[in-house]
Design a protein that fits this description.
One of its GO terms (molecular function) is DNA binding. By secondary structure, the chain is mostly beta strands. The chain has one helix at residues 2-10; strands spanning 13-19, 22-34, 40-49, 59-63, 67-77, 91-97.
C-alpha cells in the first residue's frame, strides 16, 4: 500500500480509501513518519467523502494504519493547493512528496 500511495503522489493522482469506517477521497501530497507519534501518516487535501470533524475541503492528516481499500482514481489529477510544503515539518522522515 505504501508503494501505491507513493506512486499516486508522484503521478499526482487522487486516491480514495476507507478510514475509520467511511470512504475518503483525497489529493495525496506527502507520506511520512509523523514526529509526534512516530506513525506513518499521509498529508492530503480532502476533496470528498465523509468526515465527522468537518465537511469542507481542506488539509488533513491520516494515520496510514487506519487506511484500507486504497484505490487510485484513474482520471483525477491533483490540483495545486495553498499551504503545501514539500518539507513538512511535522514529519521526521518523508517517504514520498510531490
Amino acid at each position: 500500500m505504501i508503494a501505491l500511495v507513493s506512486k499516486a503522489i508522484k503521478e499526482q493522482k487522487v486516491i480514495s480509501f476507507m478510514y475509520e469506517g467511511t470512504r475518503r477521497i483525497v489529493e495525496p501530497f506527502t507520506l511520512g513518519t509523523l514526529q509526534s507519534s512516530n506513525n506513518l501518516s499521509l498529508s492530503a487535501w480532502k476533496v470528498g467523502g465523509y468526515s465527522q470533524s468537518r465537511s469542507s475541503s481542506d488539509w488533513r492528516l491520516y494515520t496510514f494504519s487506519k487506511m484500507s481499500q486504497i484505490k487510485v482514481e484513474s482520471d483525477a489529477l491533483i490540483e495545486s493547493r495553498a499551504g503545501y510544503r514539500a518539507d513538512d515539518s511535522r514529519m521526521s522522515y518523508i517517504w514520498s512528496t510531490r
